[in-house]
Design a protein that fits this description.
Layout (H helix, E strand, L loop, with lengths): L17 H5 L6 H8 L6 H13 L24 E4 L8 H4 L7 H13 L19 E4 L13 H18 L5 E5 L1 H13 L16 E4 L8 E6 L4 H5 L5 H15 L7
Parallel strand pairs: 1-2, 1-3, 3-5
Antiparallel strand pairs: 4-5
Protein name: Uracil-DNA glycosylase
Organism: Streptomyces achmelvichensis
């Protein structure tokens, strides 16, 4: 029997409970990545991502947009997870790969490359040859939302995809860098429900925040690091600089046992 299997007809992708019923059945990350792309559980997000894929941006008029939910990207035995917010309308919603094809992705991947966790400093499209070393990029919401603002209901509907991904990564996962308060607030309930013991007082997001969740079951201690999101608003104003981001990932790489700069 597959994990969490239940009786009854299989859920349809446009059922509101499709993520809750289908995600727990995925036996590995590869299956999860495939199944998540079928999801149509949130009508507003489906309408928006598909409209964007048709209307497009002038600069990408010749692109065939992905226009579907975006799976995580990176090795399935990652020691370091990176949790963002949601795909960008003309970034991952266009390219089909998390943090690819927009300024936020460029800023993030440049820092990962500097620390030795990426094979190249740029991320243009799904066939650009980018490899991540011990790092997996994911998000609590898998569809591009209008104005980059998912509703609480959309966040909660989408949560099972992230929950199952974190559960499947648990044997190797040692550190999660959370980019922004939205990801922080979305991730904590996932970890609590997975059996992780949270501090009595709910950890508060902040750049440089560091929380250690004790080992649970077969999983090791898990370090949570807070970091400002590499959104254009944050990077253009200097709230988040490239040295600040590199410093976070230097620390994360060390905690995850992924120090690569010298070899």
């Amino acid at each position: 029997m597959r994990p969490h299997d239940t009786a009854g007809p299989p859920p349809a992708p446009d059922d509101g409970d499709f993520p809750a019923r289908r995600a727990p059945l995925c036996v590995d990350v590869a299956e999860l990545d495939s199944v998540v792309t079928e999801c149509r559980a949130c009508p507003r997000l489906v309408a928006w991502r598909e409209e964007i894929a048709v209307v497009k941006r002038a600069a990408f008029r010749d692109w065939e947009y992905w226009g579907r939910p975006v799976p995580g990207f990176g090795p399935t035995d990652a020691a370091l997870g990176v949790v963002g917010l949601a795909p960008a309308a003309h970034g991952a919603n266009r390219t089909g790969r998390m943090f690819t094809g927009d300024p936020s992705g460029d800023f993030l991947v440049k820092a990962l490359y500097e620390v030795g966790l990426a094979s190249r400093p740029t991320c243009t499209d799904i066939d650009d040859g980018l490899e991540l070393y011990g790092v997996r990029l994911t998000a609590p919401v898998r569809c591009a939302p209008p104005q980059n603002k998912p509703t609480p209901a959309e966040r909660d509907t989408c949560r099972p995809w992230l929950a199952r991904e974190i559960e499947l990564l648990a044997p190797s996962l040692r550190v999660i860098v959370v980019l922004g308060a939205f990801g922080w607030q979305a991730l904590l309930p996932v970890l609590r429900d997975a059996g992780r013991q949270l501090p009595p007082r709910r950890p508060v997001f902040g750049h440089g925040a560091h929380v250690v969740l004790p080992a649970a079951g077969d999983a090791r201690d898990l370090h949570l690091l807070g970091c400002y999101h590499p959104s254009l608003r944050n990077t253009s104003t200097g709230r988040l600089t490239q040295p600040m981001l590199v410093e976070v990932f230097d620390r994360a790489a060390h905690l995850a046992g992924l120090d690569r700069r010298d070899g």
